[in-house]
Amino acid sequence: MNEWERLRHAMRATERPDAVLDLATVMREGRRLRTRRRVAGAGAATLAAGIAAVVVLVAVDASGSGGTAPTERPPPVAVAPPSVGVSPTSPEPTPPPTVARDVPPPKALGQVIDSGVRYGTDQRVYYLVRVSVPGAPKVTVGLAAGRRSPNGYLTTDLLVNDVEGADRSAGFHQIGYDERSSTTPVPTFGYFVGPAQRIIGTVDGQQVDARLARWSFDKNVVIFWFDPAELAPGKRLDGIIARDASGRRL
Amino acid sequence: MARGDAEFVEFARAASARLVHAAFLMTGDHHQAEDAAQTALARTYASWSRVHDDDAYGYARRTLVNHLVDGWRRPMREYPTDEVPEQRRGDVADEVATRRWLVTILGALSPRERAIVVLRYYFDLPEAQVARELAVSVGTVKSTSSRALEKLRTAAPRTTDEEARR
């Protein structure tokens, strides 16, 4: 283990999963800050409008034409794009999944990801949910494959989560395979933690690119799934790798 | 509770442990770390309507780092053993020793070096992103990492010797 690896290991090993903050205070402070920003924004707008009015008056005096008050707006919201294929490489072993079934409708953490796969009017979706694993305090989230009906109702088909270690450790985590437990086949899915821009699975000597999306709560978490037309649901991968933007294997 | 508030609570519960720990790694002080994480989450909540569908965790992390970088003046402090949590998680003695080693190692680094090390090796961010978040060049990230590594190499044996003398 080199110095960086030792340091990385030490930084993670000393994490205290029981750290609890006073969220009521956090939200109270946040509301206060939001109010202050609004008041400041309104004051700035009033001041700007006043300046504009003066400018308009001067302009009217000078030429008879008017002006408008300035406005401000926050930056736009981003959504992760699907992956694009390049050239694949050698496989590595796929870890065995831990799968829980028949989970009641969960509360999704962050954005629900639409895979683009459809079952009639239902969408195949993926989302993170909170989990609690005895003896694994650093595992707090799991990845669910579910269906979303047109009225927005979520039905979970499969939930995969780590059973040891940390759910946010770098690299691949549990992979979910269809187990014929649902009337709709579940495309193979999972998540990777790190700057992956491309994830490639290998099966029967063929390489298949996964579709990717990033978790809205933590962009370091890359959720992936395989198009069922390219990888039959339930078919076990022989290997899987991730590559960064420069094509380097992670 | 409004839907946005419920989502924020879920997010904060999922993110707080890592934010507090990252702040601890950068400051060496648990109380300061908790205050910084709390401030970062409060600012995230204040902007929740525009960040919750984007990268809430990234926003909170950037806010935390900026907050600490802005206020950095204190030196690293030794983490006292009697503050180790009561619950048993693996080998507590090992964890205390690791924590002591970590605090000593990080204490040998400058605030900027600590920030780069934490972003790069705790959050696993690529160099380009570390550079963006700290508003420095990629070259600065590389050279600072390299300097930090040198300090790590010189600090690590001394720490081991001290442990052996105890």
TrEMBL record, chain A:
Name of the molecule in the record: Alanine and proline-rich secreted protein Apa
Compositionally biased spans, kind Pro residues: 90-106
UniProt keywords, alphabetically: Membrane, Transmembrane, Transmembrane helix
Biased composition (Low complexity): 80-89
Keyword Membrane: yes
Source organism: Micromonospora tarensis
Transmembrane spans: 39-60
Positions of the UniProt region annotated as Disordered: 64-106
Automatic annotation (TrEMBL), chain B:
Membrane-spanning residues: none
CDD domains xrefs: Sigma70_r4
Record domain RNA polymerase sigma-70 region: where: 17-74
Highest rank taxon of the organism: Bacteria
InterPro entries according to UniProt: RNA_pol_sigma-70-like, RNA_pol_sigma-70_dom, RNA_pol_sigma-E_actinobac, RNA_pol_sigma70_r2, RNA_pol_sigma70_r4_t2, RNA_pol_sigma_r2, RNA_pol_sigma_r3/r4-like, WH-like_DNA-bd_sf
Domain RNA polymerase sigma factor 70 region 4 type residues, every copy: 100-152
Gene3D superfamilies: 1.10.1740.10, Winged helix-like DNA-binding domain superfamily/Winged helix DNA-binding domain
Keyword tRNA processing attached: no
Entry keyword set: DNA-binding, Sigma factor, Transcription, Transcription regulation
PANTHER family in the cross-refs: ECF RNA POLYMERASE SIGMA FACTOR SIGM, RNA POLYMERASE ECF-TYPE SIGMA FACTO
Family: Belongs to the sigma-70 factor family. ECF subfamily.
NCBIfam families: SigE-fam_strep, sigma70-ECF
Protein name: SigE family RNA polymerase sigma factor
The species this protein was found in: Micromonospora tarensis
Highest classification ranks of the organism: Bacteria, Bacillati, Actinomycetota, Actinomycetes, Micromonosporales
